Amino acid sequence: MAAILGVSLRSPTARDQLVPQDGLFTVTERSGEGAVTRLVRSVNDVLFAPQSPRDVIKAMAAETTGLATLTVTEAGYLAGPAGDLDLASPAVMADLKGEGAPLSIYGFLRAALHERKAAGQRGLTILSCDNLAANGRRLALWLDQFLLAADPGLAAWTRAECRFPSCMVDRIVPATTAADRDELKTRLGVDDHAAVFTEPFSQWVVEDAFVGDRPRWDAGGAQFVSDVAPYETAKLRMLNGAHSALAYIGLREGWVFVHEAIRDPRIGDRVERLMRAEATTSLSPAPGQDLQAYADRLIDRFANPALNHRLDQIAKDGSEKIVQRWLPVLAHHQAADRLCPATLEALAAWMVFVRGDHGPVVDPLADRLADLWRQAGAKNIAAALFGRGGLLAVHWTASPVNLARLTELINDDGRTG
Predict the structure, then answer these.
(1) Rounded distance, CA 17 to CA 196, Å?
(2) Main-chain phi, psi angles of 285, to 5 degrees
(3) pLDDT-derived band of residue 197, with 50, 70 and 90 as boundaries?
(4) Bridge partners of residue 257, in order along the sequence
(5) Rounded mean pLDDT of the chain?
(6) In degrees, to the nearest 5, what angle opens at C-alpha 155 toward C-alphas 154 and 160?
(7) The pTM is what?
(8) Distance (Å, rounded) from C-alpha 211 to C-alpha 67?
């Protein structure tokens, strides 16, 4: 019987929650109509990689293992600002040396794939489930860049033997709080330390590209398609793009949760424009993909009062997120000489946010962004980020008109009339 081995690279929390519960946990779907809870039995064990590195490698190298999925957030892929793997990252540099236990996903994958190759086994299907456009192709690229620097022979074997399907996962899952767990215990008499609380909606679209037989995930509602791009791009630019806008504008206005911010008429109007007038018109939908209906559904999902999705949770690691969510939209419309007022306001709110006005900034580029603010100030920060040669200009080089508008918004603390 197939089962899941969970692995955490950064924190023992998941292991400490699940192992005493024999891998069992509950998922509670919340809506205005109430809560529905079910028991999940698919996790067999959980490892904390820094304490059990050999067990992690052995499990991935096992002949019975056919699939490794990654949910490490955008920052966990250790990409540099230009979009390539950051070979100067301390974790990557350490793993390239191959001394001691691996620190990154690349170090663990290298060790496991080396053992599979040496044993004459088939390759792995390695599936990224994170919010990255073309996540499968990008993971394949970054792993190839790592392996070319570490072991060119293994790089060639991996390209030939492994598969990296792209996928799109669409479900809003706020961080679980102690109050959530207390409510579950009161309602069901269950003390579940690994409880998950989410919305009723879910969608999982997976590229049909596997080593050997594909899993029967379609029995649970997953869609297997030849091209994930239209679905993942719509999700990144509409759902995730709107979420980031709600986070930075909503925090600026003093809100705590998504459902509060979307109900603020000024914020809600801006976010709806971002989705309907700016993001959707930058997309090429698949046949039958109704983007306006998707926007309708998103507004309803954001307004779910039973789902306390914190804005500060969404606001983390913004420099990794905006290059996927906003900058392609701005580039698309700039090429057609069109402005994106809602997306520009959101971007200005992010720029003010990373100045540190709302407390410590959780972002892989936090120190560099703080240095840029000190050097450039409000008058020049837009150019330092998005002007020619700017820190993020490789993803979008702003026109003079857009730079001027961003500077105006920043000097008005990100607000528009």
Answers:
(1) 12
(2) -70, 155
(3) very high
(4) 310
(5) 94
(6) 95
(7) 0.78
(8) 8
- Torsion angle of C-alpha atoms 325, 331, 332, 337, degrees rounded to 10: 140
> What tens digit of pLDDT does each residue of 221-246 get?
999 999 999 999 999 999 999 999 99
Residues in the chain: 417
Q: Which of 309, 298, 304 is nearest to 274 (CA)?
A: 298
How crowded is residue 255: how many other Cβ atoms within 10 Å of its Cβ?
19
Per-residue pLDDT of 100-147, as tens digits, reads: 999 999 999 999 999 999 999 999 999 999 988 899 999 999 999 999
**Whole-angstrom distance, CA of residue 140 vs CA of residue 85:** 11
3-state secondary structure the chain: CCCEEEEECCCCHHHHHHHHHCCCEEEEEEECCEEEEEEECCEEEEEECCCCHHHHHHHHHCCCCCEEEECCCHHHHCECCCCCECCCCHHHHHHHHCCCCCCCHHHHHHHHHHHHHHCCCCCCEEEECCCCCCHHHHHHHHHHHHHHHHCHHHHHHHHHHCECCCEEEECCCCCCCHHHHHHHHHHHCCCCCCCEEECCCCEEEEECCCCCCCCCHHHHCCEEECCCHHHHHHHHHHHHHHHHHHHHHHHHCCCCEHHHHHHCHHHHHHHHHHHHHHHHHHCCCCCCCCHHHHHHHHHHHHCCCCCCCEHHHHCCCHHHHHHHHCHHHHHHHHHCCCCCHHHHHHHHHHHHHHHHHCCCCCCCCHHHHHHHHHHHHHHHHHHHHHCCCCCCCCCCCCCHHHHHHHHHHHHCCCCCC
Provide the pLDDT for residue 413.
57
Beta carbons of 53 and 101 less than 8 angstroms apart: yes
pLDDT of residue 82: 81
43 close to 7: Cβ distance less than 8 angstroms: no
